[in-house]
Amino acid sequence: MRTLTLTLCLAALPAAPAAEKVASVEGLTEYRFSNGLRLILFPDPSKPTITVNVTYLVGSRHENYGETGMAHMIEHLVSYGSPKHPDAKQEQAARGARRNATTWYDRTNYYEIFPASDDNLAWALDLEADRMVNAFVKKEILDSQMSVVRNEFEAGENSPFRILYERVLSTAYLWHNYGKSTIGARSDIERVPIERLEAFYKTYYQPDNAVVVVAGKFDEAKALPLAEATLGKVPRANRQLPVTYTAEPTQDGERQVTLRRAGDVQVALAAYHVPPGAHPDFAAVTVLSNILGASPGGRLHKALIETKKAASVGASAQPLREPGATMFRAMVRKESSLDDARDALLRTIDALAAEPVTQQEVDRARAQILRDLELELTDPEQVGLELSEWASQGDWRLLFLHRDRLRKVTPQDVQRVAAAYLKPSNRTVGLFIPEASPARAEIPAPPDVPALLKDYKGDPAYRAGEAFDPSPANIDKRTVRTRLPAGLKVVLIPKLTRGSTVTAVLRLYFGDETSLRHQGAAAEMARGMLLRGTARRSRQQIRDELDRLKARVQIQGDANSCEVSIETVRANLQDVGYVVAEGLRQPSFPADEFEQLRQETLARYETNRSDPQFMAFNALQRHLNPHPAGDPRYVPTPDERIAEIKAVTLDQAKQFYRTFYGASEGELVMTGDFEPDAVQKQVVELTAGWKAPQTYAELKRPYQKIAARHQQLEAPDKQNAAFYAGLRLPLSDEDPDYPALVLGNYMLGGHSASRLYLRIRAKEGLSYGVGSVLQPQPQESNTVWMAFAIANPQNVPKVEKAFREEIDRALQDGFTAGEIATGKSGWLQAQQVSRSQDPELIRRLRSHAHYGRTAAFEADLEKKVAGLSSDQITATLRKYLDPAQIAIIKAGDFQKAAARQ
């Protein structure tokens, strides 16, 4: 009935809304309603989805004493619903929507991404209009969500890097709220009165404080009157918005902060106050941060990584409405000197005065930053979300103005801002050094944004993509499949995309169970050395060329495969192909790069060693995969892998590459704006003669019945704990029982309105993240079912109790007719949304190609899921989910939790 009502309302809307057109830039148009609400429409038919993003111009900057974390707490409460939409999360799940909400210093945003249709858009705008002023900000919801938010706070407390980041900012800011973490103080989270939350909500959640973005496949002529009938009808607030006026005074000397907690990697940070995002200097600050922090060409990389003083370095410059901070970091292994790394970090920054930036450094940094920005501007979903950040700084068009300023940054600009802001007296690190005549950095106030944008026009809008139907039938109809002489399978889906983007994945397979024994570390290091240097180019030259070509390239893999992900644009696709092929076929394995990779890899594994989530997950995977050490299917502990990485040599990595790499077995899957014939011709050229010396054979993972295990791992000084449960099931994704198991898992723990989610997070407030997944092994009768949750160590027994009770309830009582109807609708629409995302579509097509399937396999599965009965689902769950066989692994500081009780 709800859907029918919305559809009838849509049909009855007036021809044109009473909205004022304010601005139009590059395909985006802003309208202003009489109640003050700002609406930005961004029609683009290239994806069959719509994104509705609502940004409220309120964040942690607006919180008062005793209210830290209030903006974030309200985000949790508002997500529950309102009188017209009493179960918002269930409605979103039923429509296959991807939804989330986030809170930051200057804004809070809520968004849904859902299959494009007039009815779905009507529903989404009606939902956002109602919860804008009528959301359930109630004591009973606060009581459950307080512990959920506290658990999210505790999860953040597990990361020494995150806490050091917070401590540095809280020291750098004496008075301004940018020095306070958005998550808030534990005491405020636990004690905030509902009356203060209600007052905060009623003040800031009003149409004149909201910016709504609608992006994707929709008819603008219908969307405008629909927005007027929903968002435009919300009454204008009868109040004046509070104006924050606290300004951080000029810092007058270096500040120090030291954090002592359990952990395995040392970290050094240095923060400097810088202008707000709207200030003309911020573009040069962004380039400066990249020049210092990028790898491998950045100055910090050369000063700390190449000299082995640190395992990794980085930099960030977050654009904010008021003066913010730029930060520089170095991660240092325990066996190295943190003092040496800190001194080298500060010395490199201070040396800018004597060693000015070069034109090459500026060009390189600008190319990388603009590449990322311009690729984001081709995706309507990403544009819709990115606008939240810039709207909160004064106007969404600042995004485009910032891009234009980046294009014009000169070495002189960068040198000027470095001299102005990167002063010792303006930084916060671990030392205090008194100065007789301190030099202070004066931070400019926010500029007059309306004046900056009075006559701004921007670039021409990107060419729109086609309206692509993501149904399995259309995917198979559009797909071009071939197998090259070298053995590679090629799967191509040409289509028009916004900005002529192209996405591709190349996966190569190698070796067999025997030849890959004891090769884990060599395989990992050989894979990591690709694109770190070739016979013709250095790592930096490869990176520069890919930046120039506006290409993102990532390499990952596992025991017997290497996967290369590529994102670029049509005009550069051929050149990108040559660069990637050069890296894959002609790696030079430079010794210095090998040692840098070793340090980065060791630091990553050492970080995992004491993380409760990794500890529990790793232990469960080891339990469910009982293969002997050395077997390519063996799951090592972090300590085992660390020992292997320390021992592996450059010659062993080279030998692994020579023995196993080639294009004899694998898949290339590509979608986007390209000519299939040209792609196939180039791939034939690039793979000609590239045969793997070692024969490939699939690593089989036959089903084994694994005995139940209950294991508790201690993670000292970690405030958040992890809970994992798992079970191996004797069926494949082609088994007649599989569709019922898919839907049963979806309703049990597969989405944000599932049984486990509603019980453990929504009702009892025990966990921030909880759910379950089904992981089939295609064409093998071996599937893994796994459930997970995070919680305070004291609450883990309650999580386990609730988990077991919900499993028992599902097995005993099954699911209601309403749950099944909603579950089918939500799961089927979620598949459509997934196929509309090019990276996910490629992942599906690559798997189909590997196992000799087409998208018709998905159509058949969807048909079977749609036809399931309640009895089939319940019988299947009872057949496979045996509570007595479920392994449960927990990791956390349980000794401290026990001492508190």
Structural description of this entry:
With 901 residues, this protein is of the alpha+beta class. It has four domains: 2-233, Cytochrome Bc1 Complex, Chain A, domain 1, CATH 3.30.830.10; 255-445, Cytochrome Bc1 Complex, Chain A, domain 1 (2-Layer Sandwich), CATH 3.30.830; 472-687, Cytochrome Bc1 Complex, Chain A, domain 1, CATH 3.30.830.10; 710-900, Metalloenzyme, LuxS/M16 peptidase-like (Cytochrome Bc1 Complex, Chain A, domain 1, 2-Layer Sandwich). It is 44% helix and 17% strand. It has a seven-stranded mixed sheet with strand order 1-2-3-7-4-6-5, with helices on both faces. A six-stranded mixed sheet has the order 13-14-18-15-17-16, with helices on both faces. Helix 1 packs across helix 4 (118-134), helix 4 (118-134) packs parallel to helix 9 (220-230) and helix 10 (281-293) crosses helix 15. The longest helix has 19 residues, at 139-157. It is globular, with a radius of gyration of 28 Å.
Rg from alpha-carbon coordinates: 28 Å
Structural class: alpha+beta
Quote the CATH topology of the largest domain: Cytochrome Bc1 Complex, Chain A, domain 1
Let me know the largest β-sheet: 7 strands, mixed
**Residue ranges: pLDDT <50 for 5 or more in a row?**
1-17, 430-435
Number of strands: 23
Strand order of the largest sheet: 1-2-3-7-4-6-5
Please give the domain count.
4
- Provide the β-strand percentage band: 15-25%
CATH superfamily label of the largest domain: Metalloenzyme, LuxS/M16 peptidase-like
Straight-line distance between termini: 50 Å
Number of helices: 34
The residue-averaged pLDDT reads: 92
Name the CATH architecture of the largest domain: 2-Layer Sandwich
CATH class assignment of the largest domain: Alpha Beta
Question: What is the helical fraction, as a range of percent?
Answer: 40-55%
User: Shape, please?
Assistant: globular
